[in-house]
Amino acid sequence: MAFLPLFDAPCCGWYNRRHYRTRTPRVQEKPAMDPSYFVTPNPNFGPPEWVFFIAQFVVAIAGAYLTFMHADANPVRGPALRRLGYAMLILGLLGAIVGALRRSAIEPFTAPYWITIITVLSIALIIYAIYYATSVYPGQLAAWEASQRGKGARAAARPQPTQRSNVREGAAREEKVVANGAAPRPSGSRRAARREHKRRNK
């Protein structure tokens, strides 16, 4: 057994490296995710599956509300919300059906890739809805408002129908005066006409 000096240690200024060998800890590498996990049937229905199942019902109910119950008079926002409602309703019903089949342990719907597909489609719908609301919808709304302002300006520039009728009636009266050579006699009661006739004959 070799004799170690008093200050022959790594904590001191010098030491014999042959007496002290450092060991590097071994790092255990995490195994990569096996792709076969998505296609392997798994009848377990845990908390993640319950969250997915309930979320699909919520999405389907929200889609039905936007499609059939929500009324929006705006001609741009109304159809857009209705289309979003249809997409949410269809996707929510598909997810609820997949969750029910998974809950009933019916193969091949016990494979995790069914829930994965519905989840990816839901994320894609959310991304598209955000893109439409921030990029497409403002331009469509501005174009519709500009067209409405243009229609209002053209309607204000047109003459009123009552003014046209008054002008036509005045022109017809003038033509009648010119044709008869005298202004038309205003209508009055017969008694007043007889009194006027007697007064002139006296």
3D architecture notes:
- The chain has 202 residues and is an all-alpha fold.
- The protein has a domain at 45-152.
- It is built from 5 helices and no strands.
- The longest helix is centred in the last third of the chain and has 45 residues, at 113-157.
- It is rod-shaped, with a radius of gyration of 45 Å.
- Residues 191-202 have a biased composition (Basic residues).
- Residues 181-190 have a biased composition (Low complexity).
- Keywords: Membrane, Transmembrane, Transmembrane helix.
Summarize the structure.
It is built from five helices and no strands. It has helices spanning 47-69, 77-103, 113-157, 161-180, 190-201.
Key attributes of the depicted protein:
single chain; 202 residues; mainly alpha; 5 helices; 63% helix; 0% strand
> How far is the N terminus from the C terminus?
170 Å
The shape, in one word, is rod-shaped
Mean pLDDT: 75
Rg: 45 Å
Secondary-structure map:
Elements: H1 47-69, H2 77-103, H3 113-157, H4 161-180, H5 190-201
Helix pairs in contact: 1-2, 2-3
